[in-house]
Amino acid sequence: MYQPEEIIDGAQAIRSQLKTLIGEEAESMDNELSELLAQAQEGQRVEMQILRLVARREITRKWFTDYVKDKRDLQEEMNPLKSFEFLPGDTPALPLPLFRCPQGDYEWARPAVGIPVPQCPTHHIDLIPVV
User: Fold this and answer.
1) How remote is the C-alpha of 73 from its chain's centroid?
2) Strand pairing partners for 126?
3) Secondary structure tally for the chain: helices H, strands E
4) pTM above 0.70, yes or no
5) Strand partners, 119
6) What whole-number distance in Å separates Cα of residue 27 and Cα of residue 6?
7) pLDDT in tens, the chain (131 residues)
8) Which domain holds residue 89?
9) Helix, strand, coil proportions of the chain in percent (round to 5)?
10) Helix axes 26-41, 47-54, angle to 10 degrees
11) What CA–CA distances, in Å, run from 19 to 48, 62, 88, 94, 121?
């Protein structure tokens, strides 16, 4: 169903949303995700553990599923090999600017211009723009 890189990407992205999604339980799940992502960076296969973790709560499971689906849809829309072209004036929504921890375990999307970019909650360093 999911590709390993989609699972890692989704795990990085959901971390910034946990407080909104599950409130007080966010810190615990974030710590577990941080550990699993560190293991993934070391080459360990942790994708199934990540999926089990986000599936513990219905709201995080749904967010994760929607995130991967939306990302796939966006990649399909941006595929230059497609023959379909949007009509003039009918443009697709632009993706939110993404920022990622240089260590690669946290991702944050800026919801609006003017909102300051936070630091990585794991490493306490500035996030960098994803190009």
Assistant:
1) 15
2) 119
3) 5, 3
4) no
5) 126
6) 23
7) 899 999 999 999 999 999 999 999 999 999 999 999 999 999 999 999 999 999 999 999 999 999 999 998 888 877 666 556 667 776 666 778 999 999 988 999 998 888 999 999 999 999 999 97
8) 4-129
9) 50, 10, 40
10) 170
11) 23, 15, 40, 25, 12
- Strand positions, DSSP E, the chain: 98-100, 107-109, 128-129
Q: How far apart (Å, rounded) are the C-alpha atoms in residues 131 and 128?
A: 9
For residues 121 and 37, is the Cβ–Cβ distance under 8 A? no
Q: How many residues belong to the chain?
A: 131
Can you tell me the distance from the alpha carbon of 26 to that of 19, in angstroms, rounded to the nearest whole number?
Answer: 5
What are the tokens at 11?
Answer: 């795990």
* Residues 14 and 60 sit within 8 Å (Cβ to Cβ): yes
Helix axes 4-14, 26-41, angle to 10 degrees: 140
